[in-house]
Specification:
Blueprint: H1 3-30, H2 32-35, H3 38-60, H4 65-95
Helix pairs in contact: 1-3, 1-4, 3-4
Length: 104
């Protein structure tokens, strides 16, 4: 029955990664100088989530390893995909000077 905690923590981790992506994208589009400063905030959110999974898992689960792996993969893989998506969007914007980007 260790599949269910791993699946739940994976889905929650993916939601947190998506939330971080949306905040980063909004900051970059409105205040580009503040976007990089949010990286520390994203890491704090990820750390808080992993810590919560650890302590809640210790209290309610006999084996917390699947839940921790699900949480870590749920945070990492979607964050990688969202970052690639954001970098492609920003690259496209910078290649279109008509839309406000600078062509190099």
């Amino acid at each position: 029955m260790s599949f269910l905690p791993a699946l739940i923590t994976f889905i929650l981790g993916a939601l947190i990664a998506y939330m971080n992506y949306r905040i980063t994208k909004k900051l970059y589009l409105t205040k580009p100088d503040k976007a990089l400063s949010f990286i520390f905030g994203r890491q704090l959110i990820n750390f808080a989530y992993l810590t919560a999974v650890f302590f809640i898992g210790r209290k309610f689960l006999s084996n917390i390893n699947p839940a921790l792996v699900g949480a870590a993969v749920g945070l990492t893989v979607p964050a990688l995909l969202f970052t690639l998506s954001l970098s492609k969007e920003l690259k496209t914007d910078s290649e279109n000077p008509d839309e406000g980007g600078d062509k190099k």
